[in-house]
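Progress against Task 2.4 (sequence-to-structure conversion) is shown through the following example record, which the project officer requested during the mid-term review.
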Amino acid sequence: MKPVREPAVAGQFYPSDPALLAGMVDDLLAAAAGRRTEIAPRLVALVAPHAGYAYSGRVAAGAYSLLSRGSFGRVVVLAPSHRIPLRGSSIYARGAYRTPLGLVPVDEEFAERILSCGGGELVFEPEIHRREHSLEVQLPFLQRALGAFQLVPIVMGRQDEPHLTRLAEAIAKATAATGGAERTLLVASTDLSHYFADEAARALDGVILGHLSRFDADGLYGDLAAGRCEACGGGPMVATLRAARLLGASACEVIDYATSGDATGDRAEVVGYVAAALRGGAAGDDSD
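Structure tokens generated for the chain above:
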């Protein structure tokens, strides 16, 4: 029997009832679609937050509202490990993830391709995934936006070089090896600054927004390492930007930004959230 990673934060970060969850996500996606500005269509990657939907759901929906059903057959999600330290990254390489909306099968062949490029820094360690929320909370949005797809779930421990570059290269190599037969979307899961006053949080987060807008992975890595900004998923963001560049992305657009204070009204200690889209080609490119 293949392993199934069961939901860890259903009923906490998002509703555990399938109908309530589907309705909530659909409402968030519809509201985001109504307020977004159009961007060039050829999506390569997204950046989305991973807090409870009451806090970051609006921002996450800004990213996922850019998707259409069936537009991607495979999604590679890079998320940080909050609970268990790890030298590199763990890929859940067999079986499936479950949410209240159903099973999401792992693309086992694709996952094995990445593992084979890992140089010992990529492993299949299910325990790393078991209680980690940062990847799980992305899945109901993907399920409602895309319908059926295969998942490549990657939880990252070590967020420094050379691991980030090696992981980006492994993802790009595995994607290229598919021969373009099935479109692959990358997703970086991250929140931004934690528990600063709203004004200070926006200043810190502005450093990250600037690097995203400039599609500057090296600058982002440097400022994260120097403490000039902070993001629990900084490593997944940097690796995703680098992999997306290798896969032909040429621009990054910040879709939405907010702090938890925008949802709660309490601006004394907030968490920052960003949604961004990385794209390649130009508007009207028939490769989309």
